[in-house]
Design brief:
13 helices; membrane; 0% strand; mainly alpha; AI-2E family transporter; 2 domains
Length: 354
């Protein structure tokens, strides 16, 4: 390495470190934009021939925003309505029967109604009463969402150029780099899209069971199952199991047994069979590894880590497999030439150096 190369390397390291410091406060939003752009990119590619490369990303972002924010806005309305009802004592639950059953079984007297009312009042106060906190959160979220929209637009518009630039500057052959990107694409698609599809499917199927059993506030609990189902193995169980216990406690034996059997056989089947088909086959990741990645990613960078964590592990697996394939190919080439990995072929710069 000469002085010019050494200077460029130091300059690259310094500028990279400074860039990281600049981006770090917004890393959740940037990574979130990358994940969303990856999911929406096929839709954008279909619209580009019709709308053009500048208008197509705008239409895709608008459509995706409406698809997400309309249901989320409705669910926030439902949540606020239910919390107000809880704080006013309108739980929709048969708390008297639960209290009676607990007293008969344990001999302990509990006041479930007051506990539920207090919980509703506290949650309502935390989420909607502190105006200054709401304004502060709203401002941060607005800045973050604006950043996501701008980054998402340019990723959709210039995604191909960005990938081509990475392949061009990567210290690998274009063939090797292209093969690595295809493997990363396959594993990432399996993790991101499979993760989302399984969560939505499991939540909807679980919500259907709760609706059949007559569980109150089924829309809210369905949404809760969709969110919790992003946690493999344990997600939807945290909703349907307590729902079954509640029905059994208030004496609704048939609905309670139905929810218990339905959750164990139907809802859990999605985790046991559909998730491996959509995620494990494409991403080559064990469900336990996905679970660790979800918790670790969430702990490290927040909500975005639900998806970024498994993606990072998927990229690591793809890179390790690509490295292993290239190393094996290099070893086979060396064996065929009669040498080994430590002896480069004659005529190469390494072989001619003193």
């Amino acid at each position: 390495m000469n002085k010019q190369q050494g200077f460029l390397l130091v300059l690259l390291a310094i500028s990279g470190a400074v860039s990281l410091v600049i981006v770090l406060p917004f890393v959740q939003y940037v990574l979130g934009a990358v994940i969303v752009a990856y999911v929406l990119y096929p839709v954008n590619e279909r619209l580009v021939p019709v709308l053009g490369p500048r208008l197509a990303p705008f239409v895709v972002i608008l459509g995706a925003s409406l698809t997400v924010f309309v249901p989320v806005g409705y669910l926030v309305f439902i949540l606020a309505r239910d919390l107000i009802a809880l704080s006013n004592g309108e739980t929709g639950l048969q708390t008297d029967q639960v209290e009676t059953t607990v007293r008969d079984l344990t001999g302990q007297q509990i006041d479930l109604s007051d506990s539920v009312n207090s919980l509703g009042t506290e949650l309502l106060g935390i989420l909607f009463t502190d105006i200054s906190a709401m304004v502060s959160f709203g401002l941060r979220l607005s800045v973050g969402l604006a950043l996501v929209v701008f980054v998402l637009y340019y990723l959709l518009r210039d995604g191909d150029d960005f990938v081509a630039w990475i392949i061009e500057i990567a210290p690998m052959g274009n063939t090797v780099c292209g093969r690595l990107f295809r493997r990363i694409d396959k594993t990432t698609w399996g993790v991101v899209v499979g993760h989302l599809l399984v969560a939505v499917l499991q939540g909807l199927v679980g919500g259907l069971g709760l609706l059949i059993a007559g569980v109150p506030n089924v829309v809210f609990w369905t949404f809760a199952m969709v969110v919790l189902s992003l946690l493999p193995l344990i997600g939807a169980f945290l909703v349907w199991a307590p729902a079954a216990a509640y029905l059994l406690t208030i004496g609704q034996i048939r609905p309670g047994v139905f929810v218990l059997v339905y959750g164990a056989l139907i809802v859990s089947m999605i985790d046991n069979y559909v998730r491996p088909l959509l995620i494990d086959r494409e991403a080559s990741l064990n469900p336990a590894v996905v679970l660790i990645a979800v918790f670790g990613g969430t702990y490290a960078i927040g909500v975005t880590g639900l998806f970024v964590g498994p993606v990072i592990l998927a990229v690591f697996v793809a890179t390790a497999e690509a490295f292993n394939e290239e190393y094996d190919a290099l070893g086979e080439s060396a064996v065929k030439s009669g040498g080994d990995l430590s002896d480069p072929p004659e005529g190469t710069p390494e072989a001619s150096d003193p």
